[in-house]
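Protein of interest.
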Amino acid sequence: MMMSTAPSSRITPPAADLAAHFMECGALNTNLTLAPGDRMVITDDLLNGRVADLAAISMAAIVARDSQVAKAAVLPLGMVASKVAAKDREKYERLFALIEETAFDESVRESAESLIAARFRESQIKEIAAELGGTVGPARQRYRAFLDVVKLLTAKKISESLFLDEFLDFTRTVAGKLDFGIYALCVDRLFIAARIPVLVKVALLREVCKYPPLVRKELLTNLLASDRVAPELIRYAHQEVAGIMDRDQLTEIMLFTTLKRAWAAQRRTPLAKAS
């Protein structure tokens, strides 16, 4: 089973479309995805230049629900602002003032404020980068360690109960410290992995149902919208959510699952035409 965190090789939409998509994600109260229905944005996409358009990065800083992703978006914006001539810096000051006023995440608003106060000095940008790295780095290490536990389970070298204990510890350790896209990728791969027993997947599903509403919505709808998840797990998921959610919550899950399926179909259409 492969659980790589490498960015997808799919072609993302034009930059202007990606900025509009980020805005749509914010309006839908969901985490950002690289393209409609594609995998979720991780910090590396912003720090390593996969998302390069300033409009899309600016939108990510404002509407990202994931604190780590939002803070990662601030850094390339700050680097650009630090390199422009003083006479051209006013527009970036206005942009960062907008981020400070409207960003969904409080820590991003604070970062924007500090960069304005420091007039985009590179030392201040490095300080924010070091803070982000100090948070995400250890969580990434814990993620890689958890992948070794997954390999032990698929090789039948540890018990299912021990694996679940490790999963719960992994979740507690990385909660709020590992960008959500990587965590979601991990959970998604667990649900589709053929070598992981169904009973383990059911136990994971029950844990996911206990998560905060936004996180739960993302992970459950990923599962329900996937065409790679075993039908019996899909059926069990429908039964499980019906037993724990009220009517409004069920409606939201249904609508968001339908949207993700539509996004997936939209993504497949260009490939079909090309072939």
Summary: Confidence is low (pLDDT under 50) at residues 1-15, 271-275.
